[in-house]
């Protein structure tokens, strides 16, 4: 792995250690919420490591992970923690309108579309959403995408 990837992995490992420490030291958490947060943190960081190992762009993986962890640290109920751990998926209404939940992370959705597109061609509305997110998070490469769509 290149130096940049190593730095990102170190940054994520450092964030993981800080997150676990903050959760464990939070005396206001009930034992079941504490356990749920620890499990959620392991899941979120495990996904991030897996995405980095698959070669996904570090800045998007890191951004998605940081947002998920920020949500997790603010969560006070197991129900919210369970929602935070779920992957950020769009919900289509009439094929175009996208509605998302309070813990939706666009960078994570972008990663999910990228993974999905590797398995099979995306249907029209999915491709449209994928390109919308790509343009938003990679404006410096929008001209390349515009050439394909």
Give a short summary of the structure:
This protein has 149 residues and is mostly helical. The chain is built from 7 helices and 2 strands; from the N terminus they run ααααββααα. The chain has helices spanning 3-25, 31-53, 58-74, 78-85, 106-119, 124-137, 142-148, and strands at 91-93, 97-99.
Structural commentary:
- The chain is mostly helical.
- The protein has two domains: 1-86; 87-149, no CATH class.
- It is built from seven helices and two strands; from the N terminus they run ααααββααα.
- It has helices at residues 3-25, 31-53, 58-74, 78-85, 106-119, 124-137, 142-148; strands at residues 91-93, 97-99.
- The protein has a two-stranded antiparallel sheet.
- A hairpin with a 3-residue loop joins β1 and β2.
- α2 runs antiparallel to α3.
- The longest helix has 23 residues, at 3-25.
- The two termini are 32 Å apart.
- The mean pLDDT is 89.
């Amino acid at each position: 792995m290149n130096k940049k990837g190593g730095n990102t992995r170190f940054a994520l490992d450092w964030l993981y250690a800080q997150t676990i420490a903050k959760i464990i030291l939070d005396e206001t958490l009930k034992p079941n919420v504490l356990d749920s947060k620890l499990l959620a943190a392991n899941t979120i960081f495990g996904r991030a490591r897996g995405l980095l190992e698959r070669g996904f762009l570090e800045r998007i993986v890191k951004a998605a992970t940081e947002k998920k962890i920020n949500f997790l640290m603010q969560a006070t109920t197991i129900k919210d923690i369970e929602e935070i751990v779920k992957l950020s998926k769009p919900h289509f209404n009439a094929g175009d309108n996208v509605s998302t939940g309070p813990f939706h992370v666009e960078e994570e959705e972008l990663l999910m579309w990228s993974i999905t597109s590797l398995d099979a061609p995306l249907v029209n509305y999915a491709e449209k959403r994928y390109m919308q997110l790509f343009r938003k998070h990679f404006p410096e490469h929008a001209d390349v995408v515009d050439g394909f769509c």
